[in-house]
Design brief:
It is found in: Cytoplasm. This protein is of the alpha/beta class and 548 residues long. The chain is built from 17 helices and 15 strands. The strands form four sheets. Strands 4-3-2-5-6-7 form a six-stranded parallel β-sheet. Strands 13-10-9-14-15 form a five-stranded parallel β-sheet, with helices on one face. A two-stranded antiparallel ribbon has the order 1-8. Helix 2 runs antiparallel to helix 3, helix 6 runs antiparallel to helix 7 and helix 7 packs across helix 15. The structure holds iron/sulfur cluster and FE4-S3 cluster (SF3).
Length: 548
Amino acid sequence: MFCYQCQETAQGKGCTKMGVCGKTSDVAHLQDLMIYTLKGISILGLKADEIGLKMPNLDRFLIEGLFMTITNANFDKDRFIEKIKEALKLREELKGNLREKGVSLDDLHDAATWNINSDDDIELKANSPLVGVLATENEDVRSLRELITYGVKGMAAYAEHAMNLGYEDEEISKFIRKALAATLDNSLTADELVALTLETGKYGVDTMALLDKANTSAYGNPEITEVNIGVRNNPAILISGHDLKDLEELLEQTKGTGVDVYTHGEMLPAHYYPAFKKYDNFVGNYGNAWWKQREEFEKFNGPILFTTNCIVPPSASYSDRVYTTGSSGYPGFKHIPDRVNGQSKDFSQIIEHAKKLPGPIEIETGKIVGGFAHAQVFALADKVVEAVKTGAIKKFFVMAGCDGRMKSRDYYTEFASKLPKDTVILTAGCAKYKYNKLSLGDIGGIPRVLDAGQCNDSYSLAVIALKLKEIFELNDINELPIAYNIAWYEQKAVIVLLALLHLGVKNIHLGPTLPAFLSPNVAKVLVETFGIGTISNVEDDMKMFLGA
Ligand code: SF4
Ligand code: SF3
C-alpha cells in the first residue's frame, strides 16, 4: 500500500504497511481501486456531459464513493468490494447508454475498461501497480494529481451533506467528473494541473456555499449558544460526524423515548442551529475531538453513531455499541442503511440498544459557547467594527481546521493561550478542541474564541472576512488584520485550503506539518504564489504574525 493523504502519514512520507489511522493494506488497495474506477467512470461521464446525457444516480454514486475513501471514514473491506462491483455495473450501463447515442468508446483508459470474472479479480486488480498513487511516476505530476483528488474528496463530502438535504448543483458534479478524469490524462502539463488545482478551490467555495444554504435553510442560522458539556442520568446515544440530516432524524425518533442524545467531535456545532433546540433530549456535547474517542466512548456507556469520519479503530470494550451510517463503516460495527424513497433512516435498533445501557459517566462539567457563523457575526458587526476601530481588537486569527493525535499539535493550545488579549480567534472544524475550553475571556462582550461551526463552516469565516473588507472599504482581503494559522488533518481541510486560496487569501500558515503529498516543486509554487508557510514554535510564530 501507499497512502499519504493525511497529515499523520507515517514518518511524514507515506504509510506503506498499515495506516497510522488503522487502515489495513487490503483496504488501502481497495480504496485506491475505488478511486481509480470512479476516475474511469468520470471519463465516460464527461462524454455523457458533452451530449447532455443524464444518468440518474451517477452524481450520488461518485460523491459517495469519494467520501468513503476520506481518512477515517470507512475501514470496511466488504463494503468497498460491494461498492466497486456496483461501480463496474454502473459504468457498463453508462457505456451502453453512450453507445446507443452513437458515442465512440475506442481507446478508453484502463480505468474505464478493466473488469472482473469473479470477486477475487477485484483484489488482484487492487494490487496492480497501475492502480494507486505511485502509478504516476513523475513526483510533481503525482503531487498535483493527488492534491486535486484530495480536494475533490473533501468537496464530495460536503456535497453529500447538501444532497441529503435536497441541495444539488450539477455544475459541482460536472466539475468533479472533469477533475477526476483529468488526473488520468497524460497530455496535461504541470501548468494545466496547477490551473485545475485552483479551479478545484473555486468549486470548493461553491460546494461549501451550497451546504451552508442547505443547512441554514433546513435548520436556521446558527446563533450564539451555550452548550452543556456535563451529563444527565438517562440512557443516551452519542452522535458523531458531520451529517445534520442524520441528527435530525435521530432526534425525531428519540423524542419521548427517555433516551438522550449528545454530540461528539464535529457534531458539536449542531447545537448552534435553532431547529435542534426544540428537542429536550438533545442534552449537550460529550468529550472532545475525534482522536480522543477511545477513552471517551468507553466512558459514555451508551451506543455511538458515526455519520461520517473520523473513526478510530475501537477497543473491544465498546465496539459492540458502535453504529455507522452513510459513507462511514467499520468491520463489525452495525450499519444503519440509507434512506429509501425519501423515507427517514430507521434508528430504532440503536435507540432500543441505548435503553438497555446505563447513562454516561460525567467527564467534565460546564458550558462552551459557539454559534458565530456569518449571520450571527453580521448581527454583531457594529460591535466588532467598533472594537477594531478603537483598537480594542488588534487582530483576528483564523485557527480553523482539524485536530489530531500528534503531540506537536499542543502548539495550538499554547498559541491560543499566549495570544495577546486584544486578539480574537475565528475557528471552525475540530481544531477548536485545542483551545475552546480555555478561559480566554472576551473583548467588550465579544468572546475571544468565535466558533463558526464544522470544518465546512470555514466558508462562514471567509464570508465574514469578505464582509469586513467591504465595511472597511479595502481593495484586498489581505489588507484586513486577519492572520491564518490553520491546522489540517484530512482531505476536507484540503478543500478548505484550496477554497481560501481561490478567494485570494495569502500567507496561510498550515501545520503542524505541510502535506507529504506536496512535492518540493509544487510546494514552491504554493509558497511563491500564495505565501503558504508552515509553523515553527509559538514564540517565533507569534512575533512573525504580530509583526513584532
Ligand atoms: Fe496513512 Fe493517513 Fe493514509 Fe491513514 S489516511 S493510511 S494515516 S496517510
Ligand atoms: Fe475533524 Fe475528522 Fe478534520 Fe471536519 S472530524 S475537521 S479531522
